[in-house]
Predict the structure.
Amino acid sequence: MLNIILIDDELNARLALRYLLDECVECNIIGEAESMAQAQMLLNSTRPDIVFLDVELKDGTAFELLSRFPKPSFEVVFVTGHDEFALKAFQYNALDYILKPISLIHLERVLNKIRLHQRPQDDFHKQLQTLMHTMQNGKHEKLVLSTSDGMHFLPLSEIIYLKSEGNYTTVFTEKKQHIMVSQNLGAFDYLDAHTEGSNPPESSGSGGAFFRTHQSFIVNLKAVHQFLKHEDGDFAVMNDNTKIPIARRKKEAFLEAMMMVNK
């Protein structure tokens, strides 16, 4: 049985989440809070397994609350609206979140993930610290990867490219690491800042301007040292001399992105 606390300043949001959790097996809601003060008292007096935490509370933020619990003994599932930066921050840091309005399918998926993949508390603390640093400075500087042997905290500047391996993805780094995760490449599309409706990649920052050149590859544009035209097609030659294919329909956007990065 999972003991759960709901923290949200909107009563209707808590009622909706409570209703959905009642549909899920082995879930026991042991408390609710609508403010930072109530939440702190509740977390100090109970031992929840999971806390569903709204990102924006009426008297503070989820990150301010978590800063008062530097080593929480509970899992956190963030609840948020359509805040693009916050969503990307959760994805970069491999942390669980649900998007309002909440769907039962997404909720069950998150609960099953927590049941099946209980992570060491030290890893969770590092993820939270990295997330809060990201939210404070407004930059995505690291990518957190969850693997069978633990968590990897990779500076974006060290990533050369990501390669699809069926239902898995391998991340290749400047340190010659090959890190495989049990997610398909599409799960990392949020890295590509050049997708339709997004801002173009910036030429400054942490070294992470990514572009999906092909259905099987996402590259770090700052790790590209040559654009190669060949009779077999166009390629991005990476710092490790790997030739990454560029789909014909992606060529123009890729060259524009490279110009932006190299301004």
The chain is about 30% helix and 35% strand. Residues 195-206 have pLDDT under 50 and may be disordered.
